[in-house]
Amino acid sequence: MKTLGIVTSGGDAPGMNAAIRAVTRLAYAKGFNVLGFERGWEGLIRNRFRRLDPRSVGGIIQSGGTILLTSRCPEFKTREGVRKAAENLAANRVDGLVVIGGDGSFRGALELSRETDALIVGVPATIDNDVYGTDETIGFDTAVNTAVAEIDKIRDTAISHERIFVVEVMGRKRGFLALAVGLTVGAEVILVPEVPLKMEEVYKTVKENAAKGKRSGIIVAAEGAGDTRKIANQIEQNTGAEVRLSIVGYAQRG
């Protein structure tokens, strides 16, 4: 009987459990043994896994996070770490490995593929949406909707107090999440890492809106676009507007 391994690596994303469930149920139906390696690449290096079957993945489709747990694993960035993982795949007679994660996970999978005969398939799952070759990664849409729901409430208080809110969303060094959220909520300004920050243009937009009678507004900023606390302070100092900072944070991963 052939054996299939599953690993979730890097930052968790909504939908990872649904992916684990789908892979497990299909593999089991095809006659595979299924091993779920725990805590990402660390589980492969330490040979820590649990056996998965349709019963063990029941009731998880609606749950965020990952039942296999995840972590960052510096050791896997070393040649020795990759070789340990490859040796454990061979020791457990794993014929194929499904890697559920983002760009860092896929880079790790590429390195592992050079050390093992097991077939490796990547399932893109990250709220950052920064995996080349896929329109939308698992977790991205949910993260967008989580941030949008938060900002809809923030806009109510922004209007009531005539304030500008700088809202920081996740995304690391990529602006896909901030851009999607900003467009959806109709933000006055969207700040992303890919476009150099020009504060004078931000000040100009805030002042022009105030001159038109619009004294409230939403500025959506990706976490990699700059120090949002500093950005909020600079806007307040240079425009005379009352500015607040709100960080959506890890709720976007749930």
Q: Summary?
A:
The protein is α/β, with parallel strands linked by helices and 254 residues long.
How would you describe this protein?
The chain is of the alpha/beta class. It has 2 domains: 123 residues, Rossmann fold; 113 residues, Rossmann fold (3-Layer(aba) Sandwich), CATH 3.40.50. Helix content is 40%, strand content 19%. The chain contains 8 helices and 9 strands. The strands form 2 sheets. Strands 3-2-1-4-5 form a 5-stranded mixed sheet, with helices on both faces. A 4-stranded parallel sheet has the order 7-8-6-9, with helices on both faces. The protein is elongated and about 70 Å long. The mean pLDDT is 96.
Break the fold down into its secondary structure elements and pairings.
Elements: E1 3-8, H1 16-29, E2 33-37, H2 41-46, E3 49-52, H3 79-91, E4 96-101, H4 103-113, E5 119-124, H5 140-161, E6 164-169, H6 176-185, E7 189-191, H7 199-211, E8 217-222, H8 228-239, E9 243-247
Parallel strand pairs: 1-2, 1-4, 4-5, 6-8, 6-9, 7-8
Antiparallel strand pairs: 2-3
Helix pairs in contact: 3-4, 5-6, 7-8
Helix content percent band = 25-40%
Q: What's the story with the biggest beta sheet? A: 5 strands, mixed
- What would you say the CATH architecture of the largest domain is? 3-Layer(aba) Sandwich
Mean pLDDT: 96
Structural class comes to: alpha/beta
What topology, given as strand order, has the largest sheet? 3-2-1-4-5
- Tell how many strands the DSSP assignment holds: 9
